[in-house]
Design goal:
This protein has 437 residues and is of the alpha+beta class. 64% of the residues lie in helices and 10% in strands. α2 packs across α5 and α5 packs antiparallel against α6.
């Protein structure tokens, strides 16, 4: 009875499910090829999967497991060739695709078997209608589910332990769901056709839920660690602001004291060298009087805190800012937006060999019903993007990529938007806020 059921399961149904399961995941992953090359890989994969399943269907029952292993390896090759991902990641997604394919094929054949069991005429036509109708529904639903996970291009840090976990789930699901086809004399086996299909579909569904639960947990852990890192960046910027504010006050007091001391010394009869020394001393401390008067004390402090870096790296910084427009922002958000943006700009321009090109510009102004903040700087290094986000070029990767993310979080808090444009080696970070009455 079970052997008859096994022989009558259409192999093309299984091949199509395996191919479609891989394809729906590939749609969301970074592609290795584009255009006709990708189309060719997709088409060849469907042909090879169908041929493999057809050949496996002609072999004795003892070759069933090797046939399934071969099908999984072909799915792995399909995903790895089509997507620009690591081999470990390809294994992870292949396991997901395999269990998805098992569930789709099982559910489709269970429904089809139930509907066509009383058909004598036109059975093949009804089976074909069931096949495509159910597959379309299943894989559209999976596409919508995957779009929920992939819409923000969330990065899964897939490691060896994740492979062992999902492999254990997949192996358990595969063994239990197919146990009835091997032997009816186990506590988990069925003896009748519909009973066997029901067990298989239910177990495959449970396996699919477990895999998505594992991914949900992994994404939650990733989001939690990312939020923690962003909070660390915010705290760091705020602490820099507080420290800079204290240092600037100390420097200003020291500067005024030194000016009076220099004035007293100048009134005395001193050699020429001492005069030159005092001139040099006065020129050296003039820098520390540099203050920005934008109308916002927090912004003034953040801008002043970067002055030393401009001087040390021969960076030309120009600023036209109406700080009064930022009164609606909290202190930490101002520190985050301006601190991170200027820090990124300094990191970019200080490596430029031609000092005349070490330029940074900042503008804060209102235009109609919008508040605009523009950061601009010259750059020469090649910019890299990861999942739609600008990748860091800093040597210190502790806060890898979280500067821009913290800016976006602070801007979103007030209903603003962030845009990045690059043209003719000029990097421009634009922030827009709606001005409310």
């Amino acid at each position: 009875m079970n052997g008859e059921i096994l022989r009558h399961i259409p192999r093309f149904h299984t091949a199509l499910a395996e191919w479609a399961a891989c394809l729906v995941l590939i749609l969301f992953l970074k592609k290795r090829f584009k255009g006709w090359k990708l189309v060719l890989i997709i088409a060849v994969s469907l042909v090879l999967q169908s041929v493999l399943q057809y050949v496996a269907g002609t072999l004795p029952l003892m070759y069933w497991v090797p046939g399934m292993v071969s099908a999984v390896l072909l799915m792995l090759a399909f995903i790895y060739l089509a997507c620009d991902i690591s081999f470990i990641s390809a294994i992870y997604w292949c396991i997901h695709a395999f269990i998805l394919a098992e569930f789709a094929a099982s559910l489709e054949w269970q429904v089809s078997f139930f509907i066509t069991s009383n058909f004598e005429v036109g059975r093949k036509i009804v089976e074909s209608i069931c096949l495509y109708a159910i597959y379309i529904i299943i894989f559209i639903a999976i596409y919508l589910l995957e779009s929920r996970y992939m819409k923000n291009k969330a990065i899964l840090d897939i490691r060896a332990r994740d492979i062992f976990m999902v492999f254990g789930i997949a192996l358990s699901v595969f063994v239990i769901s197919n146990l009835s086809f091997i032997s009816p004399d186990t506590p988990f086996s069925g003896r009748y056709a519909m009973e066997i299909f029901y067990i298989r579909t239910l177990v495959d569904l449970i396996g699919l839920v477990l895999l998505y639960s594992q991914r949900e947990q992994k994404l939650w852990v990733h989001a939690k660690s990312e939020l923690s890192a962003i909070q660390n960046v915010l705290n760091r910027q705020y602490e820099q602001y507080r420290q800079s504010k204290e240092n600037i006050e100390i420097i200003n007091r020291t500067y005024h004291d030194l000016k009076h001391q220099i004035a007293v010394i100048r009134a005395e009869q001193n050699p020429k060298k001492k005069i030159e020394y005092l001139n040099a001393m006065e020129n050296a401390i003039k820098f520390y009087e540099t203050q920005y008067k934008t109308g916002n004390n927090v912004l003034d402090t953040v801008l002043s805190s970067k002055s030393t870096e401009y001087l040390d790296n021969n960076i030309k910084f120009t600023c036209v800012a109406d700080g009064k427009l930022l009164e609606f922002m909290e202190v930490m958000d101002i520190c985050s937006i301006f601190g991170n943006a200027l820090e990124n700009a300094i990191e970019s321009v200080k490596t430029i060999k031609d000092e005349d090109k070490r330029l940074i510009k900042l503008a804060v102004y209102a235009q109609k019903d919008l508040l605009l903040i523009n950061f601009g700087n010259y750059y020469e290094s090649k910019l890299k993007y990861e999942n739609g986000n600008l990748a860091t070029t800093k040597k210190d990767h502790i806060y890898h990529g979280y500067g821009i993310k913290s800016i976006k979080m602070a801007v979103a808090k007030y209903g603003g938007t962030v845009n990045i444009n690059t043209n003719n080696n000029w990097f421009n970070l634009s922030i827009l806020f709606p001005i409310n009455n």
